[in-house]
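Researcher: Let's do a round of design. I'm pasting the structure tokens now; please hold your answer until I've finished.
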């Protein structure tokens, strides 16, 4: 008798969760024939998202500063177009971080040719790694201008027509450095944390208009931007970043676009990504009942794992500090410092 009652309760609970999940889970977004706008689309993850979008039948507009790179990106993406008679790839040279009015004009130009923006992918971003007192103030401001305000300007430009049509998807490319502060990313992490906060608040603002927000948290990805970053990346930062591995831009792009299409708020990669997404879920919206259950049940376990990660990071930083002191002492001795006598 007790077993029958227990089974009935479990069955009722399962059916309730299944029904609730059906209500909560967003409908899949159809990319075919839509206009996907990508900032920072001339290289890296942005360019690869353009490839994935045209493969699914989308029209794509690319916004970036460098006209020559835009032309190269356009030619590259057009190779993957599914139907050249219906699809277009448009490029517009604009600095999304400089002037909101210029960004609005660029968006209108793209819309006049490809129609209203159905999906905006904010991929433009730069990184100047280094310890806070060593990073020039101009670089700190530049990161905030591009990574945060560049996203603000473009998002504001597409919101009115998305609200009027009561439809749209907005993707923010944050970073795992936007989920956890990392040595050497004092300035960069601040900009990516800012995106996370804006996205969380924006989703509440636009939900009544059937607009979905997706925040992507990729780890180190093999892009031209990363290669440029490595030139000045502190050893500590490099060693800590390597714990999450290195992904290819096309793999990251595929995951981000798929997550956005399915209406998922958080887009992450790998087990480390799952852990960070759960730990930082906080007041973030959910995309399914199962996601909520997973976050609730694994929070404590992931917190314990995170403490081991933090201890590992501390050991890396301490070891590098000791090595730096030894190098300094040796150089002083080589220069004939009296302290070496």
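Researcher: That's everything. Go ahead.
Model: Designed sequence:
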């Amino acid at each position: 008798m007790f077993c029958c009652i227990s089974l009935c309760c479990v069955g009722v609970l399962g059916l309730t969760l299944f029904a609730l999940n059906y209500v909560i889970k967003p409908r899949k977004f159809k990319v075919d024939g839509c206009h996907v706008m990508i900032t920072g689309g001339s290289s890296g993850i942005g360019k690869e998202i353009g490839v994935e979008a045209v493969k699914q039948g989308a029209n794509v507009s690319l916004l970036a500063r460098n006209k020559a790179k835009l032309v190269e990106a356009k030619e590259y993406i057009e190779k993957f177009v599914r139907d050249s008679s219906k699809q277009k790839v448009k490029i517009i040279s604009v600095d999304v971080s400089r002037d909101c009015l210029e960004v609005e004009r660029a968006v209108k130009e793209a819309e006049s040719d490809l129609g209203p923006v159905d999906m905006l992918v904010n991929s433009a971003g730069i990184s100047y790694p280094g310890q806070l007192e060593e990073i020039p103030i101009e670089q700190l401001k530049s990161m905030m201008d591009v990574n945060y305000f560049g996203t603000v300007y473009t998002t504001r430009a597409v919101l009115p027509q998305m609200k009027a049509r009561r439809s749209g998807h907005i993707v923010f490319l944050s970073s795992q450095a936007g989920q956890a502060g990392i040595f050497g990313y004092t300035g960069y992490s601040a900009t990516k944390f800012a995106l996370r906060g804006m996205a969380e608040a924006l989703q509440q603002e636009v939900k009544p208009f059937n607009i979905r927000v997706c925040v992507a948290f990729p780890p180190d990805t093999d892009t031209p931007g990363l290669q440029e970053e490595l030139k000045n990346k502190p050893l500590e930062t490099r060693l800590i970043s390597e714990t999450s591995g290195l992904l290819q831009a096309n793999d990251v792009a595929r995951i981000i676009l798929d997550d956005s299409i399915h209406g998922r708020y958080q887009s992450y990669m790998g087990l480390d990504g799952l852990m960070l997404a759960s730990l930082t879920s906080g007041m973030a919206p959910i995309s399914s009942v199962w996601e909520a259950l997973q976050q609730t049940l694994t929070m404590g376990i992931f917190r314990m794992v995170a403490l081991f990660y933090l201890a590992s990071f501390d050991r890396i930083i301490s070891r590098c500090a000791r090595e730096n002191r030894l190098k300094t002492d040796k150089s002083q001795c080589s220069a004939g410092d009296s302290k070496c006598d």
